[in-house]
Structures are given as C-alpha cells and as structure tokens.
Predict the structure.
Amino acid sequence: MHIVVCIKQVPDAKNVRIDPETNTLVRQGVDSIVNPHDWYAVEAALLLRDEYGGKVTVMTMGPPQAEEALRETLALGVDEAVLLSDRAFAGADTWATSLTLARAIAKLEPVDLVICGKQAIDGDTAQVGPGLAAHLDQPYTTYGRKLELVDGSQLRVERLTDFGYEVVQMELPAVVTVVREIGDPRMPGLKHKMRAKKLEIPTWGAADLDLNAKEVGLQGSFTQVVKVFSPPPRSDREMINGEVEEQAEKLIQLLKEAKVSGL
Amino acid sequence: MEYFLTEEQQMIQEIAAKIATEKVRPVRAELDESEEFPWEIMEILAQSDLFGVYLPEEYGGLGGGVLENCLAIEEMGRACIAVATTFAASGLGAYPILLFGSEEQKQKYLPPIASGKKLAAFGVTEASAGSDAGGIQTTAKRDGDHYVLNGTKQWITNAGEAEIYTVVAMTDRTKGARGASAFIVERGDSGFSFGKKEKKMGLRASATRELLFNDCRIPADRLISREGTGFIVTMKTFDVSRPGIGALAVGLCQGALDISVEYARKRVQFGKPIITFQAVQHMLADMATETEASRALVYAAARYIDSGAKDISKISAISKLYPTDVAMRVTTNAVQVLGGYGYMRDYPVEKMMRDAKILQIYEGTNQIQRNIIGQELNKEYGRIKETFF
C-alpha cells in the first residue's frame, strides 16, 4: 500500500501576532513548524503501513526551507519525501495548491491513499484535502478518527461528527483527512533521524509537473486575500448577574425591550 | 555551553529531551504517587532506539559509548530520575555481558537489550553484602552441565520487570571475594522468583525487589567469563556505569534549576520578583555553577573511558561522587527557593529532593566512592618517584 501524506509548514501559532497598524501577520522572528494537525495525518499513515505494509511518502508545497518540515516527519519513520518548490507556486490559494499537489501525486503513481490533516492552523480552510480529491477524481471523506483497510481495496473510516461518529467505506484510491483522535504522533527514532538527515529529497517545480505558470501560484488562484485583520472588540455588552432565575427573568425582559420576535 | 558533541550525540539529546518533556514530565507526579512501573515510557524509549546507544552495531546498537549513554540518561533525568534510572539500570545489567561475556552470550542477550524488547538488571547487593561485596551469601554450585543457585539478592532495580539478570554468586566461599562468579539468569528459569516490591522514600516509579534463588538451575554456559571473576566483573562494570549516575544527577540538577529560576523570576515579594534579591540570586548562581561543573566532569570522564583508557576507576568514582553530592544540595535549595510551595507535593521539587538522596547511596555509596578515590590516589602516588616539595 502506497500512502501519500500532504503536510504544510506554518508559522508557530504560539508566537504569531497581528500588527495593529497594518492588520497583517507579523512573521518576523516567528519559527516555522509542521502544521500540528498534519502530525495526525503522518501518524495515521504510519499506523496503516505498520499494519498492512507498504510505504509512506510525505509531500509539501512551499519554499526551499519547507524541506525541514519533511525531514521532521522522516524522523518518525516516513519512507520517502518530495518537495514541491518553485517561485511560480507562490501566492497559491487552495485551488492552485490542491491542483499542484494532485499533479505531484499523479506523478508518484501508484498511490492508494492520500491523507491530510483536517486543516492548517494558518489558513484554517480545510479545503486542500477535498480539493485534492476533486483534482484526482477520487472519493474522499473528512475528519477520520480511525482508518481500516477492508478486503485490501476499500477504506473504512470512522468519521468524527458533532454528535458521535459515522462509519463510511470507500473504494481506493481515495483521499481522507484526519483528526486528533487518530492517536498521538509517535516520537522520533534515532535510526530514522539519522537516515532523515542524509536522505536526498527530490524537488519538483511547475515544469516537472507539466503545469504552466497560469495554473499555479497567484496566477492560478481563483481567490485573493483582500485584507487580514483582527476582529474589532465587541462593544455594548451587558453582563447579567444574580441567581439563575433572576438572570433568566432579566434576560427575557431585555429581549422584549429589544423587540426580539417571538417574545 | 558548547561541549562539541557530534551530530549523532546531539540527535540523542534531542530525542531524549523530546520524550522527557512530552511523555515523562506530564506523568512524573502521577508515577511517583502510584509507584507504577513506567512501561509505556520504556516502550517509547525502545521505539526511539535509545536503549542501544552505547552498544556496538553488531549487536543491534548504535555504536556509541559511555558518553552517548550519559547524554540520554541526563535528558531523561531532567524530567524524572525514577524513569531515567529504570532506563540506566538496563544498561547496568548489560555491561557485564558486553565487557566480559562470550561471543555467544553477546549474540544472544545484547540485541534484545539494544532494541529495548527486553530490560536487563544487575544483582549484587544482599542483606549483608552492600558496600562489602565480599559478604555475598548467594551460592552457585556446579552440577554437571548446570549451576544451582541459592540465596537472596536485595534492592535490585528493575527486578520483576526485566527479562535478563546478571547476578553475582559465590562459587567458592573459602576464597572470599575471589570466589565470586557472575551469571546470566533469565526470568522464567526454574527456582527463580521475586520478592515484594519495596516502598521507597523517592525513586518510586522505579521497581525495586528481591531476587529469590531456590535451587535455581541454569545451564553452565550462563557463567560470565570464568569462575572467580565475579568481583572483577562487578568492579569493571561499575567503572563504566558510574558516570551514568553522575549523568542522572546532572539531569536532576538541571531540572531543579530550570524550575527554581523560572519560579524566582515570577514570584513577587516586597513588590519585586525574588530573583532580584541577592540572597536568592546567590543561591541560584551556586546551583548553576555546581550543575555546570558536574556536567563538564561527567562528559570528560565519559570521553576518557570511551577513549579506551585503562586507569578509569578514580575518574569514574569522581564522576559519580561530585555530581550526586551536588544534586542533593541543588534539589534541597530548589525546595528552599520555592519556599512553602516547594515543600508541597503539588510542585515537582519536593519529589526531586526525595529522589536525589538515592544518588548518594546506590551504585556504591559516596563514602565508598571516596574510598576508591583515596585508594587510587595512594596507588598513583606510590608509583611516582619524584617529590613535589
């Protein structure tokens, strides 16, 4: 079984702040980390490989230094890595990103399963996983908390919902995004880490993927970030104190005064 | 500080530190309270290849030496020396086989120790034989192709949990220390069982039990080296294992210092953080100084041993003695810096202080270390013909 895990290098959220003047992210002096949700995707892939055999390839699209993120996952026992890096990729939205990743996955054929984290902590869109499935024309499911191979050709996924979990089964090849409930990512191993340090990681650009400049990066993006800002603090709030009964009475009175319909 | 570690040594530090911070620190108080054996953590350490850092590659290890072992132990000790002792004690059980075992014994026993699939333990101490190894009462009698062991070992770290035990028993009691021999005993050997788990002041997550030998029959090829070499095997084992106790002390000191400085910067009295008071600053300065001196000593001793030097008994004893005495002082002062909070079980330093005490006792009390250092000095200067006056 060949599993590809797509990861993203993101700014360490612990240190991120927004410049109040410009409303943009202050990236200076902020460390880059592997998107925390992606560690669960790596763990999910390694669990499947440990159980059913095969290999795991990790992939990311980003600047050359994103190679560090790939090496970090190799230290956990991931078999291979591919870096997608090209100046033309810069400014990609989720469409252009998932198209680029999908082309690279197609180049790695045969691939049985693609696993992503549920979302990235910087953009928080959760769109790249499903986008990949669309570009690959494969079935997908999201928020997997347990993955299991059935008859060697189907993936059974326990899918976390707000009210419990659903069990879905889909034909491979497929795409799945996973959540924390998959299990804690394992610790790095010394032998894996030593191998990770030395392993040669191929870098693929747009030309390697038969993509032209109009299909990738900012040019290939349908959406643009117009503005990034901190939501303004909410004003005119009133705290209601007292016993629960008093609070309820006061609340109803206030809602009536505000002429909320139905009261 | 820069100790010019190799890339591989830094990786050992990084991995051990990550496990210590993420997997050990959050559970150390709970493990201390429950006295539960840290199997889950041992499995993580095994998966991360740390059990083999000091073992040769041909036996599944990473080909490092005493320094590599010390680096792993130190980082773990920074979070919890009960967990780190459990790890280090497996190495203590492996060293007699590594240093004196036959090729067959090494092939059979070292790979599962290197991979962490099996833990090892070392058994010398008895009720009436601690500092005086000559007082060992456990006997091993040759019987055809077997030896038959009888007696009781006391306070054996990892007992009951380990699979592989190296134990010292008397094959000829008339010869005193020269009548001692070392053997490999496996869990499950007939006539081999364990006593109750001891209740200890500190180091409570570490398992300490008796080894009970009741007509325990083991094949004769379990003898390590030759009959009569048990005492030498023991001393040479301690020569290479003692820097590891120093490393436990250094890790413990660093862990206590980390908490003390962080606390002193936050704790406000008389309108100022207490770290701005010279009385507190000087305590922290002494703690930091003695900790760094201990680390430099342990690394230097470990490197000297790894260089293949033969005269290692003195430096090995020094590298155990000084850091462990320092650890008692540093952890006591960490409790002092935290004041009333430090004395409470809700804060980690009281455990550190309880744990520290064992470092001055096990693997040879610090009084015995001073004996070794003193005797070595006497020998060393006896060989020197010149005068220094």
Notes: The helical segments of chain A are 36-52, 67-74, 94-107, 128-136, 190-198, 244-257. The CA atoms of residues 143 and 160 of chain A lie 6 Å apart. Chain A has six helices and 13 strands. The longest strand of chain A covers residues 140-150.
